[in-house]
Specification:
single chain; 23% strand; alpha/beta; 4-stranded mixed β-sheet; 13 strands; 5-stranded mixed β-sheet
């Protein structure tokens, strides 16, 4: 038994914040941001809406269910990845379960920052392949605007709010001479020694001072060493994609499409170059949404579908890296 993606749904806020808008908040410019990141705009949830991760995750989930022609009570499980969950516990997935009426589903969260989607997808694929579930909802739901230091131009320019969801179900099209669609293989890796280059302290910690006196960073906001993240992301993402392909007897030139985490266009381009991929083999949409963490890969998949760049039979690699540092790759026959 193999598992495959049977439905996809995304949600983004209507509120667009351009680079020009950010010029009134911090010392920056459209040219400065585009040159360093490729980002031109991002979507931000207005504070007055009071949305939580489970709200936007539910919006994307309902679209994924519709695409898969499933009802919520047909789900066996829900896995949510989020940097900014509703609460410390219970899991945001439990709140999603209640909001969409998935009465038969188990629910839990994964914590892998921007790599959350590839980790959650791997978990879902293993559960389906093992026969423990027939349909699992995987969600990346990210409300990043509340945990951004809007006075720090190195981080506030990067992130946006969004949610993406897929249904992972059984792949039943195997047969002699038939190319079976499905999730072929996943690889995951972590390095806790690099945990300080990208992190967010608990929002519920009452023992932190508002300002870290040593580096003037706000402990309850995103903190990042951009140069170190860049170097590690380029090296490790290209390496894990190559190893995942090699384990299936394939090489980067066999890929039809690389769908990487949309953190920074320079990172994505560098990974593509290291893998020897052509421009049309790599999807980039960070210019429209910014870095939406675990929601970025489903957003990119959705854009690839809308643009006609993702078709049945294609060999696709999903790859992401996030705080931990944690990274991974899912190899898929679409």
């Amino acid at each position: 038994m193999k598992a495959k993606i049977t439905g996809l749904g995304v949600w983004v806020p209507d509120n667009v914040v351009t680079n020009k808008d950010l010029e009134s908040l911090v010392q920056t410019s459209d040219e400065w941001i585009v040159t360093r990141t490729g980002i031109r705009e991002r979507r931000i949830v207005p504070k007055e809406l009071h949305y939580k991760a489970s709200d936007i995750g539910s919006f994307a989930a309902l679209k994924a269910l519709e695409a898969a022609n499933l009802k919520a009570d047909e789900l066996d499980g829900i896995i949510v990845a989020s940097i900014n969950p509703d609460k410390q516990f219970p899991a945001t997935a439990c709140f999603v379960q209640a909001k969409i009426g998935a009465s038969q589903a188990f629910a839990f969260d994964v914590t892998a920052a921007c790599a959350g989607f590839v980790v959650a997808l791997n978990q879902a694929a293993l559960l389906v392949a093992a026969g423990q579930a027939k349909n699992i909802l995987v969600i990346g739901a990210e409300l990043l605007s509340p945990v951004i230091d809007w006075s720090d131009r190195n981080t506030c320019i990067l992130f946006g709010d969004a949610a993406g969801a897929v249904i992972v179900g059984e792949s039943n099209n195997a047969g002699q001479g038939v190319l079976q669609s499905g999730i072929l293989r996943s690889m995951l890796k972590s390095d806790g020694n690099a945990s300080e280059i990208l992190y967010l302290n608990s929002q519920l910690s009452f023992n932190e001072k508002q300002i870290d006196p040593e580096n003037n960073l706000k402990p309850n906001c995103m903190n990042m060493d951009g140069k170190q993240v860049f170097k590690m992301a380029v090296k490790e993402l290209s390496d894990i994609v190559s190893r995942c392909l090699s384990a299936e007897g394939l090489k980067p030139s066999d890929l039809d499409l690389l769908v990487p985490h949309q953190a920074n266009s320079r990172i994505i381009q560098a990974v593509g170059e290291r893998l020897g991929l052509k421009e049309n083999q790599v999807i980039i949409n960070v210019q429209k949404y910014g870095n939406t963490s675990s929601a970025s890969i489903p957003l990119a998949l959705n854009d690839a579908l809308l643009e006609g760049r993702l078709k049945p039979g294609m060999l696709v690699a999903l790859a992401a890296i996030g705080g931990g540092m944690t990274w991974g790759c899912n190899l898929i026959r679409w």
